[in-house]
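User: Some background: our group keeps a shared notebook of sequences we're curious about, and every so often someone picks one and asks for a predicted structure to add to the entry. Today it's my turn. The entry only has the sequence so far, pasted here. Could you supply the structure so I can complete it?
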Amino acid sequence: MRTVDPNDLSESQKRRMSGMCCFNLLGLVATAAFLCAISSYAYCDFATRKVTLKEGFTIDEVCSSTGYDGITKAQCEALLNTHGVGFDGFWITVPVDTKVCYPYTLITPWGYQTPDMDTKFNSARALSITGIVLGGAAWFTLMLASCCKLDQSKLNGLACYFFLATLFQGLSLLIFRSNVCTVGFFSVYFTEPGTAAPTTMPDWMESVSCSLSKGSKLAISATVLWFVCSSMLPAAVVPEPLWRGGEQEFPPGTAPTGGDDKPAEAGGGVEQAGEEA
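Assistant: Of course. Here's the predicted structure to add to the notebook entry:
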């Protein structure tokens, strides 16, 4: 195989080769961003919530005094220990040392109860899904470029998708300003329905705080990577697809004629004309 000397390439050829390398790198970065975005939503561990009890109270006493016993008591203890929260449920530890995703609708001494999610929580969930869809659509288009011809103008248009994915993915962190990270979120689990306002703090609870966890860290990583993809697009050049739909290139004068797949034989027309004469 003959090697190509870079000094023999024209400036336009060098720019195209650099752009094609940038395109390949763009595909890797977009893949990493898409995987981070999906993983950030998939687990019920977007944020870590810590519950602090007032001095003189223990988790076992609180659960017993509120009517939890048996299996539900283990659930109560898991909620009062440090645990993860996500868009679809809690990430808690149940006996024995098993991490599970519990839904927000839980059995309590007063039956099944579901807390009210505020606008910020629902907005964060919707924005996270929207960011995944937009970024995933741009990533899927890049993957199709390996087998389908993609115009350069269409490639540049993907910058809009990557930018919107950056914006929406970053806004998913709005969950830290939602009522999931407030004391009132627990009222429905520890107070008999109709006897407490939604923002009532139990007399045994000191505070509730949220911090970054696996899901939010992945969301931040996806946000940064989506932005990197948007910045790389202007320098990327679409390469020729690996599969061209069965098209074949023939040397000049040997292209197939009519419906026959074989190249036309040189001089065939002359011999036929001589026979007819």
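Suggested note for the entry: Residues 246-256, 258-274 have pLDDT under 50 and may be disordered. The CA atoms of residues 67 and 109 lie 6 Å apart.
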